[in-house]
Amino acid sequence: MMPLSAERLNSALASLVAGMTGLRHDGRFHEPNLDGTPGDYVSFDSWEWPQGVGLYGLVRLWAQTGDDRLLQTIEAWYDRRIAAGLPAMNVNTTAPLLALSELWRRRRQPRFEPVLREWAEQVVTALPRTPEGGFQHDVSDRVNDDELWDDTLFMVALFLASYGQAAGQRRFVEEAERQFLVHARYLADPASGLWFHGWTFAGRHNFARALWARGNAWITVGILDLVEFAEIAPSVRAYLLGVLETQINALLKVQAGSGAWHTLLDDPTSYEEISATAGFGYGLMKAARLGIGSTECRAAGLRALEAVVANIDDKGVVANVSYGTRMGADLQFYRSIPIHPTGYGQALAILCLTEGARHLQPKVEAA
Predict the structure, then answer these.
(1) Which residue in 133, 205, 216, 353 is deepest, having the highest Cβ count within 10 Å?
(2) Rounded to an integer, what distance in angstroms lies between the CA atom of residue 66 and that of residue 220?
(3) Cα(203)–Cα(189) distance, integer angstroms
């Protein structure tokens, strides 16, 4: 295999964009929504959470490269979907608003601001809540009464922080802070330092107590990007970065020899999963760049980067990505989740490679 370099990563990034925008539903999964419409969690041109995460990867890549063709692809996607009519609001259908907010923050397109403002207002006033004010993890095809999931922080809270900061609406940032605090209270495992997938107030337990890899990746990426997006209250920032450092220390102990992580972080018999590996790689390299966490972060992040690059096929599609994962009642549920290309797999790989390119750029010697 060729050694990693910024040039190689840039070539792979172009391939990843093509791979994501070319994703199409092949009929393998039939997941109708509660309103009777068909659910499409694969095709690029669909408004759902995998596509929302995918667009976030594209926006972050555009912000770093200034690629006008990529910008046109992103804006055209939003123009098409908004013109077609947006779906009902839930946790997962909120996910595409994060990328739109980050795009609007940089370009201030007048046509997008009303959508962002109205959706943010709806989130804080109408999204169902659990006890203690957490956002209940309701999705397009299921109501999850009184449940908190890791995923919610990435799908909803990051959008509120991004838009609230960009629009000068402090109350949205404060709601994002609250969500991170409530979720950390019930999902962060003090024993391992890792995060459980979910919590139910109805049964007051963490379901299978699964230390699920991608759920943990949402947290690693989420905390780092939260403190980048918005002015977080100093006490909240310090608390969340402490939680993150604890998680990072635990992640370093369970990284596989390949550079990847297993889909159940503490179970080496479960398969190695690349979307989570990409999220962790991004987070570890970014933490190292920002001076957060252990001195081992950069090396571990670069090993993850190598594992991600090794799983990009010749069509730019990321392999060994687990399909969308509901809340499992037992650990075998997680071991049995099928592998399938997804927008979030592409996006997390894009985040990992864009951060990796920053670490691999040749250093210019001072004259």
Answers:
(1) 353
(2) 26
(3) 17
